[in-house]
C-alpha cells in the first residue's frame, strides 16, 4: 500500500509545479548559481544577489551537486547575473529536485512507521500527506521535506537504540539547516542518559553515577565532531564570516507575518494597552509603523518592555529546562523512554516556537511531524495532535496569499484532517473497555467540547478573512487585520497546546500503562516477564 | 429482498468517505489551477469564452433574443447552441458576475475578458454546480448500491466510501469540466439523478422529470433517451391487474406524459412566442451544416475518413441518413433485448450500449461526448470492474489530443496516475497479497469483486493479456505524440492514430457490453433457502 500512497502523493506534488512560488524559489536558484560559479572560499562572501547563502555548508554542497544537474536542464539558470530567472525548464528542474529529494522524507517516514505495531499505515499516511509540508515545500518552495526525512531517520534510529547512527544523522541534519539546534538539547540529554549511563534504575529517579561509560561518550563525540569537521573543515579560514551569515541578529522579534506564538499575543497586548492608555490620557510613546506592516524589521513596544534577542533566548532556554530534567528521569526506564524522547522533542520544538527570536511560521512543522508519529501512541497525544494539526496547518495559510490558491489550501487541509479525525480516534475506541458514550452534538471525534468549539472558530476566521473583510471595505484601511486575526487566533491555540502538553509531560508517570506500544517496547516486556 | 424490506434501517461503510470525498474535491481544484481552453488565444478563444459570452448575452438581452441573430447578439461569435436550461444557468451565473464584476459581462466590451479573479470565479461556478448536481447524485447511487447488498457482502467495489471516491475520481470528467471548462457535470448530474430514481427508488415520475431537465440542459443527453424511453414505456405494461387493464395502462402512461409535457412547457415557456421561435432554437441546437464530426473523434466515421474521404463521396443529407441507419442498427440488439427481457440490472448496460452506439455512429459527434458513455460505465463499475476500468482509461486517453491543446498534460498524467493507484489500493484492500501491478490480472480483479463466482480462466487470461498490450499501445502512442515530430505533410498523424486506436477499443467494448447485457437472465435469480432437516 505504501507504494500506491507514495504515487498518489507524488502525483499531487506534480500538480503544484506551475502554481505560485515565493521568493524562496529565487533564493535557491541564486544559491545554485553561487555554488556553481564561485570557488569554495567565495561561497559565503558572494553578494551579487540580496539572497546570500545563509545555510550551513552541507546545504551549500547539496546546491553545488544540484547545480551540475541544473546545467543539463537550462545552462542559463546557473548564471550569477540572471537574477529572478525563471524559465519553464528552471521551474521544472527546481520543482523536480524538491519532489525527488522528498523521497528521503518518505523513506524516513517508512522507517519510523515500521516500528509501530498498530496504525503504522495510518502514521505513514498522516506524515506524507502533511498539508503544511506540501504547501511549504511544493507551492511556497523550500527543501524542508528531506530535512525532516533525516530527522525522522534519526528518531527511528533512536527508537531502535542505534545511538551512533542517531548522532550521525542528527549532526548531518544540523549541518543542513541550523534551525534544528533548537531541539539539540533533547538529543544531548537523552543520549547522555540512555547511552552514556549504561545502567538504568527501576524507580526512574536515581541515576547510578558509577555506570557512566566514557567510551560511549567518546564514540558519540567522535561521530559528531567528524561530521562537523567534514562540513566546516573547508571553511576553516572564514568561520567568522560563515557564522555571521548563519546567525543574523539584525532581524526583528517577529517575522512580517507574526508566527502564532507567545510574542504574537505579547504584541497584541501591547497594541491594546497603547490604545487604552491613549484613551485614558496616559502619555505613551507612539510608534508609527504598524508591526504587521511587513517591512519593519525592528520595532519598539509602546507600553510593555521591549524584547531583545538575549531575553528571548533566555526565556526559550528556561522554558525548556523542566522538560529536559523530566526527560532525564524518564530516561531511566528502558522500555518506554524512547517515546518520552519523542515527546520531549515535540515539547522543546514547541518551546522554541513559542519564545524564539524571529520565528518563522513554518517552524510549526517541527511540532506537527513528531507529533503525528506520537498520535497513535497515547490518547492525550492523539487529542492534542488532532487539535494542533488544524491550528498549525491553518496558521500556514497566509504563506500562500494568492486568492486562487484558497480552495486548494482548504481542501488539502480538509483531506488531511478528515483522515486524522476518522481514523486516529477509532484506534482508541477499539481498546477501550467501556465503549465511549455517544458523541455530543457538534463535538469532533477525539476532542473535548471547548476544543471543538475553538476549531469551529476557524471557519469564521476563514470566512471573515476571505469575504467579509473585503465586503466591509476594510481592505484599503486595515489591510493587515486579517493576518493579525489569524495569527492571534492561532497563537491562542498554540499556547493552549503548549500548556497542556507541558503539563502532560511533566506529570507523566511510568505507572500509566502505555496504550499502544512500539514493537520494541513489546519485546522488552516479553523479556521481563 | 433482504435489506430493502426495511428502507429506513441500513448501515453503509463510511469510514473513508470524508477523506475520499475531500480528496476528490481537492483534485478538482488542482486541475482548475491549470489553463482553460482558449486561454489567451484571440480572436475566438475557447469554451471558457463561450460560457462567459452566454452570461453576457443572457444578462444583457431579452429572453426572446437569446437564440436570434440581432444587432446585440452575433450568433457567429459563440452563439448559444444549447437548450434553454443552459441559458437559464448562464443567466443565473451572469447575474452574480454582474454583481461582483460588471466588467466581465458588459455587452461587446467584455469579449475576450480574462483575469485571474474572473477565472477563479468561473472555476467556482463549475465547482459548485458539480458539487450540487453530480457529487450528490454519485453519493446517493453508491449508498444505495451497498444498502441493497446488506452488511455481509464482500464486494469491495461496492463499499460506499470506496465506490464514491472512485466514482468521483474519474479523470475524464474532472479534466473536461474543471480543466477544459464546461458544465457537463450539470447535465450528467441530472442524468445520474434520473438513473438513481429508476435504479434505487423506482419513482418513475421523478426520473422522467430529472431526465427531461438533463435533456434540456444539453441536447447530447439524447444519447441516453432510448433506454429511458423503453424502460418507462415497458413499465406501463408490467404487472397490470387483469381487471380494468386498459384504463390502468392509460393511467400510468398519462402520468408520465403529463410529467414530460409540463416540464417541457415550463422550461420553454419564456421562449415560446411563436412556432418560429421554437424552430429557430431547434435549428441552433442541431446544426446540420457543421459536418459529421469535429476535430478528431474516435468514432467510426473519423476512422473511416482516413481511407475514404466521406465529404466527397456523400453530401450532408445522405450522410445524415447513413448515420441514422447505422446508429439504429448498432443500438437495436441492446434495445430489443431490453424491451422484451426487461430487468433492472440491464438498465445501466443498455445505457452504455446505446450511448456507445450513438458515439460511434451518429452525426456531429464531439470527442467530449465520450463522457456520456463513460458515466454509465462508472455506474457499472462495481459489477464488472476489470472491463469498466479498462474502458475508462481508454476514454480518458481518447481525449488526449484535446487536452494537449489546452495545456493539460500534467493534469492528465497526474489524475490518471492517481486513478490507477487508487484502483490498486482497492484491490489490495480485498486481497492483501495483491501487488502493485495486480490490476493487470483480470482474475485478481474479479476475485476482489466477487470471490464466489467461477470465471472462465482462459478468457480471463486472454483479457489480461489484451489489457496489458492495450496499455502498452496507449503508453507508446502517448509518448509518440509528446516527443516525435510528425511528418510535415501529415501534421495530424498522432491525433488520428490515437482516435483510431481508441475507436477500435470502443467497437470491441460495444460488442462486449452488448454480449454482457444479452447474457443476463430476464429475472434476477432468487436465492432459495434450503431448509436443513
TrEMBL record, chain A:
Listed EC numbers: 2.4.1.-
One Pfam family of this chain: Alg6_Alg8
Membrane topology note: Multi-pass membrane protein
UniProt GO MF annotations: dolichyl pyrophosphate Glc1Man9GlcNAc2 alpha-1,3-glucosyltransferase activity
Presence of the UniProt keyword Zinc in the record: no
Entry's transmembrane regions: 121-141, 147-172, 179-197, 217-236, 311-328, 340-357, 364-390, 410-431, 452-474, 480-503
Pathway: Protein modification; protein glycosylation
Compartment annotation: Endoplasmic reticulum membrane
One biological process term in Gene Ontology: protein N-linked glycosylation
Enzyme class: transferase
Recorded GO CC terms: endoplasmic reticulum membrane
Major location (coarse): endoplasmic reticulum
Protein keywords: Endoplasmic reticulum, Glycosyltransferase, Membrane, Transferase, Transmembrane, Transmembrane helix
Family named by the database record: Belongs to the ALG6/ALG8 glucosyltransferase family.
Name of the protein described by the UniProt record: Alpha-1,3-glucosyltransferase
Encoding gene, per UniProt annotation: LOC113397281
From TrEMBL, chain B:
Annotated EC: 2.4.1.-
Ranges annotated as spanning the membrane: 131-150, 162-181, 193-215, 253-271, 319-340, 347-366, 409-427, 467-484, 496-515
Subcellular location: Endoplasmic reticulum membrane
Keywords carried by this UniProt record: Endoplasmic reticulum, Glycosyltransferase, Membrane, Transferase, Transmembrane, Transmembrane helix
Transmembrane helix in keyword set: yes
Pfam families documented for this protein: Alg6_Alg8 (PF03155)
Listed InterPro entries: Glyco_trans_ALG6/ALG8
GO cellular component: endoplasmic reticulum membrane
Enzyme class: transferase
Main location per the UniProt record: endoplasmic reticulum
Keyword Membrane: yes
UniProt membrane topology term: Multi-pass membrane protein
Pathway entry: Protein modification; protein glycosylation
MF terms (GO), sorted A to Z: dolichyl pyrophosphate Man9GlcNAc2 alpha-1,3-glucosyltransferase activity
Family the UniProt entry places it in: Belongs to the ALG6/ALG8 glucosyltransferase family.
Protein's UniProt name: Alpha-1,3-glucosyltransferase
Species name: Vanessa tameamea (Kamehameha butterfly)
Amino acid at each position: 500500500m505504501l507504494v500506491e500512497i507514495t504515487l498518489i502523493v507524488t502525483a499531487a506534488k506534480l500538480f503544484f509545479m506551475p502554481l505560485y512560488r515565493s521568493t524562496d524559489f529565487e533564493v535557491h536558484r541564486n544559491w545554485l548559481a553561487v555554488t556553481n560559479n564561485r570557488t569554495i572560499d567565495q561561497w559565503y562572501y558572494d553578494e551579487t544577489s540580496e539572497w546570500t547563502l545563509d545555510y550551513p555548508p552541507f546545504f551549500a554542497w547539496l546546491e553545488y551537486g544540484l547545480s551540475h544537474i541544473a546545467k543539463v536542464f537550462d545552462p542559463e539558470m546557473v548564471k550569477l547575473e540572471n537574477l529572478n530567472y525563471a524559465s519553464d525548464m528552471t521551474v521544472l528542474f527546481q520543482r523536480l529536485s524538491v519532489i525527488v529529494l522528498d523521497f528521503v522524507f518518505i523513506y524516513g517516514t517508512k522507517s519510523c512507521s515500521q516500528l509501530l505495531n498498530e496504525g503504522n499505515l495510518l502514521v505513514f499516511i498522516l506524515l506524507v500527506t502533511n498539508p503544511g509540508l506540501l504547501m511549504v515545500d511544493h507551492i511556497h518552495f523550500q527543501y524542508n521535506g528531506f530535512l525532516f526525512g533525516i530527522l525522522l531517520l534519526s528518531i527511528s534510529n533512536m527508537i531502535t537504540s542505534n545511538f551512533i547512527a542517531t548522532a550521525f544523522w542528527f549532526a548531518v541534519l544540523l549541518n543542513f539547516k541550523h534551525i534544528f539546534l533548537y531541539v539539540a538539547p533533547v538529543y544531548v540529554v537523552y543520549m547522555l542518559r540512555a547511552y552514556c549511563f549504561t545502567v538504568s534504575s527501576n524507580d526512574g529517579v536515581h541515576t547510578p553515577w558509577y555506570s557512566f561509560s566514557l567510551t560511549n561518550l567518546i564514540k558519540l563525540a567522535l561521530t559528531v565532531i567528524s561530521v562537523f569537521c567534514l562540513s566546516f573543515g573547508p571553511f576553516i579560514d572564514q568561520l567568522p564570516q560563515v557564522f555571521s551569515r548563519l546567525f543574523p541578529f539584525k532581524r526583528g522579534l517577529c517575522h512580517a507575518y507574526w508566527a502564532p506564538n507567545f510574542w504574537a499575543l505579547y504584541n497584541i497586548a501591547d497594541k491594546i494597552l497603547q490604545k487604552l492608555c491613549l484613551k485614558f490620557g496616559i502619555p505613551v510613546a507612539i510608534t508609527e509603523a504598524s508591526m504587521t506592516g511587513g517591512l519593519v524589521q525592528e520595532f519598539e513596544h509602546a507600553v510593555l518592555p521591549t524584547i531583545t534577542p538575549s531575553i528571548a533566548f533566555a526565556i526559550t532556554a528556561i522554558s525548556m529546562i523542566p522538560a529536559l530534567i523530566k526527560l532525564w528521569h524518564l530516561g531511566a526506564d528502558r522500555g518506554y523512554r524512547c517515546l518520552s524522547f519523542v515527546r520531549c522533542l515535540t515539547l522543546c520544538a514547541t518551546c522554541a516556537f513559542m519564545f524564539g527570536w524571529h520565528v518563522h511560521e513554518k517552524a510549526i512543522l517541527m511540532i506537527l511531524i513528531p507529533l503525528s508519529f506520537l498520535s497513535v501512541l497515547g490518547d492525550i497525544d492523539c487529542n492534542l495532535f488532532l487539535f494542533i494539526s488544524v491550528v498549525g496547518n491553518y496558521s500556514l495559510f497566509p504563506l500562500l496569499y494568492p486568492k486562487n490558491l484558497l480552495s486548494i489550501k482548504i481542501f488539502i487541509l480538509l483531506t488531511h484532517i478528515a483522515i486524522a479525525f476518522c481514523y486516529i480516534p477509532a484506534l482508541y475506541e477499539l481498546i477501550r473497555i467501556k465503549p465511549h458514550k455517544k458523541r455530543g452534538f457538534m463535538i469532533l471525534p477525539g476532542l473535548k467540547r471547548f476544543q471543538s468549539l475553538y476549531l469551529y472558530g476557524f471557519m469564521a476566521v476563514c470566512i471573515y478573512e476571505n469575504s467579509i473583510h473585503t465586503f466591509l471595505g476594510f481592505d484599503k484601511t486595515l489591510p493587515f487585520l486579517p493576518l493579525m486575526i489569524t495569527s492571534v487566533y492561532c497563537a491562542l491555540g498554540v499556547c493552549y497546546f503548549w500548556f497542556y502538553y507541558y503539563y502532560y509531560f511533566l506529570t507523566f508517570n511510568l505507572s500509566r500503562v502505555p496504550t499502544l506500544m512500539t514493537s520494541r517496547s513489546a519485546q522488552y516486556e516479553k523479556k521481563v516477564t | 429482498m433482504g435489506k430493502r424490506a426495511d428502507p429506513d434501517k441500513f448501515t453503509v461503510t463510511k469510514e473513508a468517505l470524508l477523506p475520499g470525498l475531500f480528496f476528490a474535491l481537492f483534485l478538482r481544484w488542482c486541475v482548475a489551477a491549470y489553463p482553460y481552453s482558449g486561454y489567451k488565444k484571440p480572436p475566438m478563444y475557447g469554451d471558457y469564452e463561450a460560457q462567459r459570452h452566454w452570461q453576457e448575452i443572457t444578462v444583457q438581452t431579452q429572453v426572446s433574443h437569446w437564440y436570434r441573430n440581432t444587432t446585440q447578439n452575433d450568433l457567429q461569435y459563440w452563439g448559444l447552441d444549447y437548450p434553454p436550461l443552459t441559458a437559464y444557468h448562464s443567466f443565473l451565473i451572469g447575474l452574480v458576475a454582474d454583481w461582483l464584476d460588471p466588467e466581465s459581462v458588459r455587452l461587446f466590451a467584455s469579449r475576450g475578458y480574462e483575469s485571474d479573479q474572473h477565472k477563479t470565479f468561473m472555476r467556482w461556478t463549475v465547482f459548485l454546480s458539480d458539487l450540487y448536481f453530480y457529487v450528490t447524485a454519485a453519493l446517493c447511487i453508491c449508498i444505495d448500491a451497498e444498502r441493497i447488498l446488506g452488511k455481509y457482502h464482500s464486494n469491495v467495489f461496492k463499499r460506499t466510501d470506496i465506490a464514491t471516491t472512485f466514482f468521483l475520481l474519474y479523470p475524464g470528467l474532472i479534466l473536461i469540466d474543471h480543466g477544459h471548462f464546461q458544465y457537463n457535470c450539470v447535465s450528467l448530474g441530472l442524468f445520474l439523478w434520473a438513473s438513481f430514481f429508476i435504479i434505487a427508488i423506482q419513482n418513475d415520475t421523478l426520473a422522467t422529470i430529472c431526465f427531461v431537465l438533463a435533456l434540456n440542459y444539453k441536447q447530447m443527453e439524447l444519447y441516453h433517451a432510448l433506454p429511458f424511453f423503453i424502460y418507462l414505456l415497458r413499465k406501463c405494461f408490467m404487472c397490470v391487474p387483469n381487471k380494468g387493464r386498459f384504463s390502468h395502462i392509460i393511467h400510468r402512461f398519462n402520468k408520465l406524459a403529463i410529467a414530460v409535457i409540463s416540464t417541457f412547457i415550463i422550461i420553454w415557456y419564456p421562449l415560446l412566442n411563436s412556432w418560429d421561435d421554437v424552430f429557430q432554437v431547434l435549428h441552433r441546437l442541431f446544426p446540420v451544416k457543421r459536418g459529421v464530426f469535429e476535430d478528431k473523434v474516435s468514432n467510426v466515421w473519423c476512422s473511416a475518413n482516413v481511407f475514404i474521404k466521406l465529404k466527397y463521396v456523400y453530401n450532408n443529407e445522405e450522410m445524415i441518413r447513413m448515420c441514422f441507419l447505422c446508429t439504429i442498427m448498432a443500438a437495436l440488439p441492446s434495445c430489443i433485448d431490453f424491451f422484451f427481457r426487461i430487468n433492472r440490472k440491464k438498465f445501466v448496460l443498455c445505457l452504455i450500449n446505446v450511448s456507445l452506439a450513438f458515439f460511434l455512429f451518429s452525426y456531429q459527434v464531439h470527442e467530449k461526448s465520450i463522457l456520456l458513455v463513460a458515466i454509465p460505465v462508472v455506474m457499472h463499475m462495481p459489477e464488472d470492474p476489470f472491463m469498466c476500468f479498462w474502458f475508462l482509461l481508454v476514454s480518458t486517453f481518447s481525449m488526449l489530443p484535446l487536452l494537449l491543446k489546452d495545456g493539460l498534460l500534467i493534469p492528465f498524467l497526474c489524475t490518471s496516475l492517481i486513478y490507477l493507484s487508487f484502483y490498486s489500493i482497492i484491490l489490495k484492500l480485498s486481497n492483501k497479497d495483491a501487488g502493485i501491478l495486480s490490476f493487470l490480472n483480470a482474475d485478481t480483479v474479479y476475485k476482489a469483486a466477487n470471490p464466489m463466482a467461477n470465471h472462465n480462466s482462459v478468457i480471463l487470461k486472454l483479457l489480461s493479456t489484451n489489457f496489458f498490450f492495450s496499455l502498452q499501445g496507449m503508453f507508446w502512442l502517448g509518448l509518440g505524440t509528446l516527443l516525435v515530430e510528425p511528418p510535415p505533410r501529415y501534421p495530424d498523424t498522432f491525433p488520428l492514430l490515437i482516435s483510431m486506436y481508441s475507436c477500435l477499443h470502443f467497437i470491441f467494448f460495444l460488442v462486449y457490453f452488448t454480449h454482457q447485457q444479452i447474457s443476463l437472465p430476464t429475472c434476477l435469480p432468487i436465492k432459495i433457502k434450503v431448509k436443513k432437516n
